[in-house]
Write the structure tokens for this entry.
Amino acid sequence: MTALRSHDAPQGPPRQHYGSGVLSSLFAPRAIAVVGASRDPAKLGAVMARSLASFPGPVALVNARDEALCPSVAEAVVRYGPVDLAIVCVPAAATAGAVAEAAAAGAGAAVVCGGGFAESGEEGVAHQAALADVVARTGIRVLGPNTSGFLVPSAGVTASFVPGVADVPAGRVAVVAASGGVNHALAFLLTEAGHGVSLAVGLGNAVDVSAPDVLDHLAADPGTGAVALHVESVADGPRLTAAVARLAVTRPVVALVVGRNDVAAFARSHTGALATSWRTTRAALRQAGAVLVDDERELVDAVGALSQVRLPAGATGVGVLTGQAGPGLLVLDDLRGRGVDVPELTRATQDLLGTLLPPLTHQANPVDTGRPDPSFGRVLAAVAGDPGVDVVAAYALHEPDALDLVAVADGHDGSVPLVVAVGGAGPAVAAARAALRARGVPALADPRGLSAAVAALVADAAGRRAPRTAPGHASVEVPGGPVDEHAAKSVLDALGITTPPRRACRSRADAHRALDELGGPVAVKLLDAAVLHKTEVGGVRLGVRTAAELDEALDAIGSGTVLVEEMAAPGVDLVVGARRDPVFGPVVLVGLGGTTAEALADVAVRVAPAPDAGAMVDELAGRALLDGWRGGPVLDRTALAHVVDAVGGLLLDHPGLDEVEINPLRLTADGLVALDAVIVEGR
């Protein structure tokens, strides 16, 4: 009977450790104890015992209520030698005690698969707190609770109760997922795509072992070529991004962040509403060097390719080679939609291609061979030899009578990496893709998979450009207490950010003197630190030229202090803001601004300080508006970087501030002008 395997196992010398590091007891154990093992095949303890059937070391089945099994982990150590890992399959209320007993017996790690913890209500929160206390007191590392476990196929460790997971082969991709279910879904998708896994782990409630722990463990794992990271929420943003940055130096990290449709409560400013946790998490991970994807299939295509190929830092140019025009156009369209450079080939390359291809084929990039023939390899060599090409993306249907793609790959000199999509179905097509992967050539199934993989290679290379140092920023004083628009703009003035000439007016007479001094037209605004969205309460009147119009504006706004301000020249409105994110700390945001900022949500986000602040606008869908659209003004990106660095610096220098926002920051023919400003103290 499987459940009795360990009881009959001979006692011998301790097995050699399959690894090193603080998580080696978890992911590379010498011996395992299943606590709560059962001879009832339907119970979790019995399922876990069956899953561990391929483990080469001792598996001690522990249940104090079954005299046929080990009564304790301590007794298992006596019988079989040191136990590194305890897989705990007992009710939530008994889990903390079971983990404490395992720690006392020398176990360095435990997996808690069962639920009933913080995800289940007040009682579960107490159970999870008790488990956390055991971790703090004993130092044992705990994965879970509320996880379906992990697997390390190369070591024969299948610490999971999910059926079929033992069929996932060993490979070069590691999966680090917030969810146990997503962990297994990705492991199965990677298997279907022809990749195995080096490690696949679901973190569950992460009472102890979290994503940064596993990422640091993988940095020393020679069997891992790339990492798929699934993120639902982040407890410690700086710790996560630091771990990603360390790992990305030697191994690509591809991240899928859940929460695109974030519906957080309306914030006090546009910056808070726009810098959702999803956007901020993605921005922080990208800044740390991760490649971002939008769904699980794209994740598999990207991480699979990166586990085999990594471009030199800064590589950008993609040569597209296709045996069929239609799929080639799909690849081109998708690559350009992702912002990937598909450069026109040089005249010399096109002349060479003209000697190899029929005259009606497209030869500038993409290169369409028409129906593939034996010249495909020579065409590939010509495209790969172009000075603007850093990687070749090739697509062809599986037509073995016309083209042997595996032979083409064998003949490729490797001057630049090759990524191939083989179209077709059936065992022969799967065998061709497998043969390409065995030769170190990423092999995909369709045009979109090809473009996703190549875009990931380029994004990874871009993330490894030489780091740029964020410019310094001036440190200025910020008034204490609530800050109104006039005071906020005075802070901007001190930072070297242009604001319009203005007067704070406490009486009607002051307002009329301001109009005389400034001349028309002017804007008249309610000046009240408690009102952040003045247009929503009728607190703004624009284009006031005469004394009569001023009186009308003052009557409409009502009593109170007003700001009379010179009207700015027309232009394009931006929003620039900084917000103290509860997870990642100060973040900065740039987007198209004005009153429609939230509706458009066309923004770029960085963790402050942002070394590439001036380039943030290049991520905006509306970036063409900033480059002289229809004779309009052209943005000076250095000037924008100064503004972004300045507002981010305010939060870095003043821990008591929560948000700083300039909306709109208007791009005019004379440069950038801050038309409205908000500074919010911590709440």
In short: The CA atoms of residues 262 and 276 lie 6 Å apart.
